[in-house]
Amino acid sequence: MLCRLGYLLGELPYLDAAERTLRAGWPMLQQYPQAHMSLANALEDFLASMQILIVRGDAPQIESWTAGLSALYAPTRMIFAIPRDAAELPPALAAKRAAAGTVAYVCTGMTCSAPLTDLGEIARELTLRINEAPSARP
């Protein structure tokens, strides 16, 4: 969860804490992997190219986009629908501004696309980014 939070908020301290936790738990994970599935899942999050899709716009349309984009399943992808009028967002999310229509940002690790407004273009971007380097960690 620390990895996911670190990538979503663009905060390296969360990623550093995740790495320290994984290093501390590594001996037990090696010896008793079946007893540490949460740690194994966290390791997968840490090593995978975490992909985050942020959809901004008016509520009915972002819900529709989110449902459609969720059909393009990838186990290391999280999708967040943020209404146009959402206030007091953390800086990394506030930087993904809403536009006149619905807009999406595709992020892998700490790197995000320019705002995308076409669902076909978003699907292509999702496919390209999931096939990038094995780790998006800065």
Please name the defining characteristics of this protein.
138 residues; alpha+beta; Glutaredoxin; four-stranded mixed sheet; 6 helices; 49% helix; elongated
Structure summary:
By secondary structure, the protein is an alpha+beta fold. The protein is 49% helix and 16% strand.
Give a topology summary:
Layout: H1 2-9, H2 12-31, H3 37-47, E1 51-57, H4 59-70, E2 77-83, H5 91-94, E3 103-108, E4 111-112, H6 119-130
Parallel strand pairs: 1-2
Antiparallel strand pairs: 1-3, 3-4
Number of distinct beta strands: 4
What is the residue-mean pLDDT, rounded to a whole number? 86
Give the SSE order as H and E letters: HHHEHEHEEH
What is the helix fraction of residues, given as a range? 40-55%
Strand order of the largest sheet: 2-1-3-4
Instruction: Give me the oligomer status.
Output: single chain
Whole-number total of structural domains: 2
Q: What fraction of residues sit in β-strands?
A: 15-25%
The third-level CATH topology of the largest domain is: Glutaredoxin
CATH architecture classification of the largest domain: 3-Layer(aba) Sandwich
What would you report as the Rg, rounded to the nearest angstrom?
16 Å
* Alpha plus pi helix count: 6
The secondary-structure class comes to alpha+beta
CATH top level of the largest domain is Alpha Beta
Poorly predicted ranges: none
Shape: elongated
- Major β-sheet, in short? 4 strands, mixed
Measured between the Cα atoms of the first and last residue, the distance is 18 Å
